[in-house]
Write a structure and sequence with these properties.
Length: 489
Amino acid sequence: MMIQFPKIIQGGMGVGVSNWRLAQAVSKLGQLGVVSGTALDALLVRRLADGDIGGHMRRGLDAFPFPDMARRVWQEYFVPGGRAADAPYPVTPMHQRRDLRKVVELCIVSNFVEVFLAREGHKNPVGINFLEKVQMPHLSSIYGAMLAGVGYVLMGAGIPLHIPGVLDAFAAQHPSEYKLSVTGAAQGQDTQMQFDPADYAEGPLPILHRPRFLAIVSSNTLATTMLRRASGRVDGLVIETPTAGGHNAPPRGKLQLNSAGEPVYGERDRVNIAELRALGVPFWLAGGYGNAEMLREALDEGAAGVQVGTAFAFTRESALRSDLKDRLLAQAITGSGEVFTDPLASPTGFPFKVAQLPGSYSDPEVAAARKRVCDLGYLREPYANPDGGIGYRCAAEPVANFVAKGGKIEDTVGRKCLCNALLSNIGHAQVRKDDMIEPALVTVGDDLNTIAQFLAPGRETYGAADVVKSLLRLSMSVDVTEQVLAATA
């Protein structure tokens, strides 16, 4: 039977920007809605601390197949009526190679809840997007998403060679492991992370469906590497160009900056579409493909479709704060929006796209005023201690702490705490003891100013259906187009 692949993949953006509401809306329209899998455990904790507005988290917890585990999460983090506005959110232990059981359980439950809610009310597949560089939560996160019946797992920001084997193992009801990347690890040092579903199940292990795996890559070389060396089946590829939002792959060769201080991408960074077609797997093109003409062009070149992020980030369904949406959409309408590819902002060292917005973390004065703190730790770098153990450091943590852990002081220059900033983007900013509220830092693609195309005359907002309808207008038959129009009415 021929597989019907979606023409549009909605990007899995930020921390919670691509939430269950957005993914549900896109999947209901027959395209692939995708939830962001980054920091879902912290997001669930903050939603519960805010009183579970709407009762959606409770509905997801009630559907979780291990009720005792769900009960423990609810009892520890739910605050009836919500925390006071000036009260800080609870802080959970940061992930390590060997997590505490409560940390693992929270990760399993939070990923289940997000996917479960995204799948409500329709029978179409839903995807989840993870960052390969955020390795420590991988196993428990993937298991939680598979418990909820996730249809696709997408992963980039690294080379996710071992993820297909993890999916295979969980679908076979087997334990799985993942090798943690540890800077300076000695040959033979044990850096494996392990997860056995039997350690967490309450009764017989559930039968799980193996989701399709899409690797997000930036070059023909990485595409070929994934297909040849992955630990299991790679079902497709998303080819992301340097114009896409979030983290970008660094330019190949020696880093050069333009006059504005942005990385310069050249001929070596261009993808050869003909070579992609020859690989024989479905592929989607991403980065600047958020309009009907680019989708049509991608299809004509042999792609299965496109992945679109920025356009969906500004829909009514996304969790990006409404004030941030309004300000950036107003800029887009006048064509004045600016996006800076910052080579320093991310603690990972990867270039990171930042919307320039006064009063946000992109503002030099705001960045200088923020006191360094690292209390979420998703982007921490595992490193080998002299005693043979594993330590954790982040270039955005207090400088003295980073240097004491063997980090280079020059690596701290210009770094920003993305973990806290991305939670602030969606209205869950941490409150500090000195009354400082964590600032937002919005990441979008270079095509920010094109999002105004989705606004109907006289409208100030648009929805996911408007994006889907606009993108498909040149690529669907009359009958299918009428079905989409009916669904979006």
